[in-house]
Amino acid sequence: MxxxxxxxxxxxxxxxxxxxxxxxxxxxxxxTLVFLSRSSKQLYSQNYSAVSAADLQxxxxxxxxxxxxxxxxxxxxxxxxxxxNTSNQDVANAYPAFLRSGISVVTPNKKAFSGTLxxxxxxxSAVEQSNGKALVYHESSIGAGLPVISTLKDLIAxxxxxxxxxxxxxxxxxxxxxxxxxxxGSGNAKWSQIVAQAKEAGYTEPDPRDDLNGLxxxxxxxxxxxxxxxxxxxxxxxxxxxxxxxxLESAGSSDEFMKRLPEFDGEMEQYKEDAVKQGKVVRxxxxxxxxxxxxxxxxxxxxxxTPIASLRGSDNLIMFYTERYGANxxxxxxxxxxxxxxxxxxxxxxxxxxxxxx
Amino acid sequence: MxxxxxxxxxxxxxxxxxxxxxxxxxxxxxxTLVFLSRSSKQLYSQNYSAVSAADLQxxxxxxxxxxxxxxxxxxxxxxxxxxxNTSNQDVANAYPAFLRSGISVVTPNKKAFSGTLxxxxxxxSAVEQSNGKALVYHESSIGAGLPVISTLKDLIAxxxxxxxxxxxxxxxxxxxxxxxxxxxGSGNAKWSQIVAQAKEAGYTEPDPRDDLNGLxxxxxxxxxxxxxxxxxxxxxxxxxxxxxxxxLESAGSSDEFMKRLPEFDGEMEQYKEDAVKQGKVVRxxxxxxxxxxxxxxxxxxxxxxTPIASLRGSDNLIMFYTERYGANxxxxxxxxxxxxxxxxxxxxxxxxxxxxxx
Lengths: 358, 358
What we know:
The structure is a homodimer.
Chain A: E1 4-9, H1 13-23, E2 32-38, E3 41-44, H2 66-74, E4 79-84, H3 89-93, H4 95-100, E5 104-106, H5 111-114, H6 117-130, E6 136-137, H7 149-157, E7 162-168, H8 171-180, H9 191-200, H10 209-212, H11 215-227, H12 254-260, H13 265-277, E8 280-289, E9 294-303, E10 315-322, E11 330-335, H14 339-357
């Protein structure tokens, strides 16, 4: 194969899992790793020979700025690919420049695709103008390694009309509601107890408000809506129901928030009971109604026996309603978070980019 | 893009839907259609200019044999792709020759991948030896347009270990059991009535025994097992439970079979009741146990509330259990039959082949 060169930005949970998946790829689909960085360390080779991830920690390389990195990669003796395993907005903002310089991008970073509509347009017009030379793949920006984005793109590319996208897009929200209000009626813990338990088990962000505000789900819905053709301005441009009680929005520390959360258990209990009265269960759901151009995120009462009501653990579930599929949607379900499965989406994308570029 | 040339074999339900999807593709990802055939008609242009599907019926072209077609396509002034929309074994047997001549293959035809292990090996070693020049894609050979094969390939390519594949792989079987023994206990029709109703609605093959013998499901399981790394000799090499009562295996015509089927309703009723006694429902399930190297197809009692028990209509459902996904499988669900959704899988594959070849 023609030589391909790889830069990996970010060596956290996803980045580490990705590097170990990368190392296990057959040589024929593994580009040469020439650049690796974490927050304040960089490792790269001036002459584009392979670097070893093990040497990052002890590296004393002078730090390249993003424009320097772009320059470095576009001067490589073959095509270059950036894998961005961060959730950093600055790196995301650099994608158009990477792509215009003929550098492909593979990433789970939601920021690039759920930020301003301008950034989205810049990214995809750079891809289009590259005429197949610079590609962008971002499967893991929704549902980790689940085939969500590839499926939506296939539906659209083959001429189907997507009418509605609906589902549970957060592993944390899934766990909270599957525990709080399971379909078999067995749940009897208070909402605040469930949140505390999820926090202790590491299922939430360090500050659970970063999950409960719904922004993570809103970002994913922004991406899906845009892929489905809607010009969505961003995750703040449609209704998103926050599960942070108004009075606790500025409650100070995460501990302070958790301490006061029980005061508001009655509100969530009410939702649960109202759903039960209708023979349903309450879930945190995201919806894109394509013909109406509407996106929304929040609590919904869901019929028992449906795939969403039957979810278990912290699984994600995504339903595509389309003209071809008719009344029964195409459904994808499974773990939507975790280093290994997120990295799997990244590695799978990288393989596809390599297959197309070589 | 460099020129790509397309031959389409088969213009039945899937073929017709495929041609209409093909016509709607943007010119940039649409290869030039130079050859089109149905059972006893062929249309092609000597100088590799585009032909129009509308002219097939009135074509008086001399019929090309498969070796002639291989010769014709390998002499094209650019790379060639065959789309085989038949379920013909002879065409399937020609894939290794196509691939060795640098011609890529896209197909929903199960026969190539569930036939002899030798044919499978010949196909994939031809792909490997082509070094990325000749590709084979067959998403629609299982679950129509559902992303089943691409997902399994991604799991394996990124280094996950698939431990078990389980699901409902036949739209007909799905409809029969979802109607006969729905999870809410509402079903009260006899088995033979359900089969008759499905036959009338066109949900079964003209002779329902072609569904009830389980061979179609066994073919799909053969493909999945082989993709997962098992050397399966073919659909007759593992246990497949036929739902054709022994006494009716040679009952003559389809009508004769349908007339006598009610005599055997007791047997299916017994399965249904036995399942209910265990709080379960009976379903027709296929399983691949990868570490044990076991494949089997037949009736199973399935826990209520699980995705399989909750299936509706004629949906397929495929569960991948893997090391990375742990206890909760990656699940794909939706319509697994029908011209439009099958053609969608073919068109989606064609787009990927075009992206890789150009």
